[in-house]
Amino acid sequence: MATTANITSETHNCGHCGNTSYMIKKGVIDDTVSEGDHKHGYYESGDFYRVLKCPNCLKINILTYFWHDSMDAEEDVNETLVYPQHQAFPVGLPAKILEYLTSAEKVKSIDVHAYALLLGRILEFVCYDRGAKSDKLYLMLEELAVKGDIPEKLVKVASGVRNFRNIGAHVGSGDLSTAELPIVRALLDAILTYIYSAEHLAAQAELKLSKIKKRRKV
Q: Pfam families in the record, alphabetically (predicted)?
Protein backbone atom coordinates (compact mmCIF):
# COMPACT_ATOMS: atom_id res chain seq x y z
CA MET A 1 0.00 0.00 0.00
CA ALA A 2 1.28 3.46 -0.90
CA THR A 3 2.21 5.75 1.96
CA THR A 4 1.23 9.41 2.06
CA ALA A 5 4.80 10.33 1.08
CA ASN A 6 4.35 8.42 -2.17
CA ILE A 7 1.25 10.35 -3.25
CA THR A 8 1.51 13.36 -5.56
CA SER A 9 0.51 16.73 -4.17
CA GLU A 10 -1.58 17.59 -7.24
CA THR A 11 -4.26 15.76 -9.21
CA HIS A 12 -3.57 14.24 -12.62
CA ASN A 13 -5.73 12.81 -15.38
CA CYS A 14 -4.87 9.17 -16.11
CA GLY A 15 -4.10 8.60 -19.77
CA HIS A 16 -5.48 5.06 -19.57
CA CYS A 17 -8.81 5.25 -17.74
CA GLY A 18 -9.43 9.02 -17.61
CA ASN A 19 -9.72 9.07 -13.82
CA THR A 20 -8.62 12.35 -12.22
CA SER A 21 -7.03 11.91 -8.80
CA TYR A 22 -3.82 12.06 -6.81
CA MET A 23 -1.33 9.64 -8.35
CA ILE A 24 1.13 7.26 -6.72
CA LYS A 25 4.73 8.38 -7.31
CA LYS A 26 6.88 5.53 -8.64
CA GLY A 27 10.04 7.42 -9.57
CA VAL A 28 11.74 10.29 -11.37
CA ILE A 29 14.27 9.97 -14.19
CA ASP A 30 16.76 12.84 -14.41
CA ASP A 31 18.02 13.33 -17.96
CA THR A 32 19.75 16.68 -17.34
CA VAL A 33 23.33 17.68 -18.06
CA SER A 34 25.69 20.12 -16.33
CA GLU A 35 27.11 22.88 -18.51
CA GLY A 36 29.26 25.96 -18.02
CA ASP A 37 32.72 26.53 -16.54
CA HIS A 38 34.42 27.51 -13.30
CA LYS A 39 34.65 31.16 -14.29
CA HIS A 40 31.04 31.72 -15.30
CA GLY A 41 29.43 29.08 -13.17
CA TYR A 42 27.63 25.83 -13.85
CA TYR A 43 23.97 25.17 -14.54
CA GLU A 44 21.75 22.16 -15.07
CA SER A 45 19.33 21.76 -17.95
CA GLY A 46 17.45 18.93 -19.57
CA ASP A 47 14.40 16.73 -19.23
CA PHE A 48 12.80 15.13 -16.21
CA TYR A 49 10.46 12.16 -16.47
CA ARG A 50 7.96 11.39 -13.73
CA VAL A 51 6.53 7.89 -13.42
CA LEU A 52 3.09 7.87 -11.79
CA LYS A 53 0.70 5.02 -11.06
CA CYS A 54 -3.05 5.54 -11.31
CA PRO A 55 -4.84 4.39 -8.11
CA ASN A 56 -7.94 3.56 -10.15
CA CYS A 57 -6.71 1.31 -12.99
CA LEU A 58 -3.21 0.68 -11.49
CA LYS A 59 -1.50 1.51 -14.79
CA ILE A 60 1.61 3.63 -15.30
CA ASN A 61 1.64 7.17 -16.69
CA ILE A 62 4.86 8.93 -17.72
CA LEU A 63 5.02 12.71 -17.76
CA THR A 64 7.95 14.84 -18.87
CA TYR A 65 9.04 18.45 -18.49
CA PHE A 66 12.07 20.55 -19.39
CA TRP A 67 14.05 22.29 -16.67
CA HIS A 68 16.79 24.90 -16.75
CA ASP A 69 18.38 26.44 -13.67
CA SER A 70 17.55 29.88 -15.03
CA MET A 71 13.83 29.15 -14.74
CA ASP A 72 12.29 31.11 -11.88
CA ALA A 73 9.82 28.66 -10.40
CA GLU A 74 7.84 25.47 -10.89
CA GLU A 75 5.13 27.60 -12.50
CA ASP A 76 7.42 27.80 -15.54
CA VAL A 77 7.27 24.02 -15.97
CA ASN A 78 5.12 22.75 -18.84
CA GLU A 79 4.51 19.07 -18.13
CA THR A 80 3.18 16.78 -20.85
CA LEU A 81 2.02 13.18 -20.93
CA VAL A 82 4.27 10.98 -23.07
CA TYR A 83 2.81 7.60 -22.10
CA PRO A 84 0.28 6.38 -22.95
CA GLN A 85 -0.01 8.07 -26.34
CA HIS A 86 -3.50 8.22 -27.82
CA GLN A 87 -4.48 7.51 -31.36
CA ALA A 88 -5.27 10.69 -33.26
CA PHE A 89 -8.87 11.37 -34.23
CA PRO A 90 -9.91 12.04 -37.84
CA VAL A 91 -10.23 15.75 -38.64
CA GLY A 92 -13.50 17.58 -39.16
CA LEU A 93 -15.61 15.53 -36.76
CA PRO A 94 -18.80 17.01 -35.27
CA ALA A 95 -18.41 17.95 -31.61
CA LYS A 96 -20.74 15.19 -30.43
CA ILE A 97 -18.82 12.45 -32.23
CA LEU A 98 -15.55 13.83 -30.87
CA GLU A 99 -17.08 13.72 -27.39
CA TYR A 100 -18.19 10.10 -27.87
CA LEU A 101 -14.75 9.09 -29.16
CA THR A 102 -13.01 10.71 -26.20
CA SER A 103 -15.31 8.88 -23.79
CA ALA A 104 -14.67 5.58 -25.58
CA GLU A 105 -10.90 5.99 -25.34
CA LYS A 106 -11.19 6.41 -21.56
CA VAL A 107 -12.77 2.97 -21.12
CA LYS A 108 -10.64 1.12 -23.68
CA SER A 109 -8.11 -0.07 -21.11
CA ILE A 110 -10.82 -0.95 -18.58
CA ASP A 111 -13.38 -2.96 -20.58
CA VAL A 112 -12.87 -4.05 -24.19
CA HIS A 113 -16.55 -4.92 -24.59
CA ALA A 114 -17.68 -1.50 -23.38
CA TYR A 115 -15.23 0.06 -25.84
CA ALA A 116 -16.65 -1.89 -28.79
CA LEU A 117 -20.16 -1.02 -27.66
CA LEU A 118 -19.35 2.71 -27.55
CA LEU A 119 -17.77 2.61 -31.02
CA GLY A 120 -20.95 0.97 -32.28
CA ARG A 121 -22.95 3.76 -30.68
CA ILE A 122 -20.82 6.28 -32.58
CA LEU A 123 -21.66 4.46 -35.81
CA GLU A 124 -25.37 4.73 -34.97
CA PHE A 125 -24.97 8.45 -34.29
CA VAL A 126 -23.28 8.89 -37.69
CA CYS A 127 -26.29 7.27 -39.36
CA TYR A 128 -28.74 9.54 -37.54
CA ASP A 129 -26.54 12.56 -38.24
CA ARG A 130 -26.72 11.78 -41.95
CA GLY A 131 -30.52 11.47 -41.88
CA ALA A 132 -31.06 7.68 -41.77
CA LYS A 133 -34.60 6.79 -40.62
CA SER A 134 -34.54 3.00 -40.13
CA ASP A 135 -34.64 1.41 -36.70
CA LYS A 136 -31.95 -1.20 -37.44
CA LEU A 137 -28.29 -0.28 -37.81
CA TYR A 138 -27.69 -2.45 -40.88
CA LEU A 139 -30.72 -0.85 -42.57
CA MET A 140 -29.48 2.64 -41.70
CA LEU A 141 -26.13 1.81 -43.30
CA GLU A 142 -27.89 0.67 -46.46
CA GLU A 143 -29.84 3.95 -46.46
CA LEU A 144 -26.58 5.91 -46.41
CA ALA A 145 -25.28 3.86 -49.33
CA VAL A 146 -28.46 4.51 -51.36
CA LYS A 147 -28.19 8.25 -50.60
CA GLY A 148 -24.57 8.22 -51.72
CA ASP A 149 -23.19 9.26 -48.32
CA ILE A 150 -21.00 6.16 -48.25
CA PRO A 151 -20.05 3.70 -51.03
CA GLU A 152 -21.24 0.09 -50.94
CA LYS A 153 -17.74 -1.06 -49.97
CA LEU A 154 -17.91 1.03 -46.80
CA VAL A 155 -21.20 -0.63 -45.86
CA LYS A 156 -19.22 -3.85 -45.41
CA VAL A 157 -16.65 -1.95 -43.35
CA ALA A 158 -19.41 -0.47 -41.21
CA SER A 159 -20.93 -3.91 -40.76
CA GLY A 160 -17.63 -4.99 -39.28
CA VAL A 161 -17.99 -2.33 -36.56
CA ARG A 162 -21.60 -3.41 -36.07
CA ASN A 163 -20.57 -7.06 -35.63
CA PHE A 164 -17.94 -6.17 -33.04
CA ARG A 165 -20.54 -3.97 -31.33
CA ASN A 166 -22.89 -6.94 -31.11
CA ILE A 167 -20.19 -9.09 -29.52
CA GLY A 168 -19.59 -6.37 -26.96
CA ALA A 169 -23.29 -6.12 -26.20
CA HIS A 170 -24.27 -9.80 -25.96
CA VAL A 171 -22.62 -12.36 -23.68
CA GLY A 172 -23.59 -15.27 -25.91
CA SER A 173 -21.83 -13.75 -28.93
CA GLY A 174 -18.33 -14.48 -27.61
CA ASP A 175 -15.52 -12.47 -26.06
CA LEU A 176 -13.31 -9.72 -27.43
CA SER A 177 -9.66 -9.15 -26.53
CA THR A 178 -7.37 -6.15 -26.76
CA ALA A 179 -6.05 -7.59 -30.04
CA GLU A 180 -9.33 -6.75 -31.79
CA LEU A 181 -9.59 -3.15 -30.57
CA PRO A 182 -7.28 -1.57 -33.20
CA ILE A 183 -9.31 -3.34 -35.90
CA VAL A 184 -12.62 -1.97 -34.62
CA ARG A 185 -11.19 1.53 -34.32
CA ALA A 186 -9.61 1.38 -37.80
CA LEU A 187 -12.94 0.31 -39.31
CA LEU A 188 -14.76 3.19 -37.64
CA ASP A 189 -12.02 5.67 -38.61
CA ALA A 190 -12.39 4.65 -42.27
CA ILE A 191 -16.07 5.61 -42.14
CA LEU A 192 -15.52 8.85 -40.21
CA THR A 193 -12.73 9.89 -42.56
CA TYR A 194 -14.86 9.28 -45.66
CA ILE A 195 -17.95 11.06 -44.35
CA TYR A 196 -16.48 13.94 -42.34
CA SER A 197 -12.74 14.40 -42.97
CA ALA A 198 -12.94 14.45 -46.76
CA GLU A 199 -15.77 16.99 -46.60
CA HIS A 200 -13.85 19.09 -44.06
CA LEU A 201 -10.61 19.05 -46.07
CA ALA A 202 -12.47 19.92 -49.29
CA ALA A 203 -14.06 22.92 -47.56
CA GLN A 204 -10.66 24.01 -46.23
CA ALA A 205 -9.13 23.70 -49.70
CA GLU A 206 -11.93 25.79 -51.23
CA LEU A 207 -11.41 28.47 -48.58
CA LYS A 208 -7.66 28.60 -49.28
CA LEU A 209 -8.23 28.83 -53.03
CA SER A 210 -10.77 31.60 -52.50
CA LYS A 211 -8.25 33.60 -50.46
CA ILE A 212 -5.57 33.12 -53.12
CA LYS A 213 -7.92 34.34 -55.87
CA LYS A 214 -8.82 37.45 -53.81
CA ARG A 215 -5.13 38.28 -53.34
CA ARG A 216 -4.57 38.04 -57.09
CA LYS A 217 -7.35 40.57 -57.76
CA VAL A 218 -5.90 43.12 -55.32
A: DUF4145
Least confident of 37-51, 85-99, 176-190: 37-51
Could you give phi then psi for residue 23, rounded to 5 degrees? -95, 160
- Our CA angle for 16, 21, 24, nearest 5°, is 80
Distance of CA 169 to the CA centre of its chain: 23
Q: Does the predicted model carry a pTM greater than 0.70?
A: no
Which of these, 108, 110, 105, lies nearest to 56 by C-alpha position? 110
Q: pLDDT (tens digit, 9 = 90+) per residue, 175-200? A: 766 777 788 888 888 888 888 887 77
Q: Is the pLDDT higher at 121 or at 43?
A: 121
In this structure, are residues 163 and 137 in contact, taking their beta carbons and an 8 Å threshold? no
| CA 3 to each of CA 23, 57, 118, 157: distance values in angstroms, whole numbers, following the listed order | 12, 18, 37, 50
Which range of residues forms the domain containing residue 192? 95-212
For the chain, what is the domain count? Answer: 2
Beta strands, E only, 7-166: 7-13, 20-37, 41-53, 60-68, 80-83
C-beta of residue 123 within 8 angstroms of C-beta of residue 168:
no
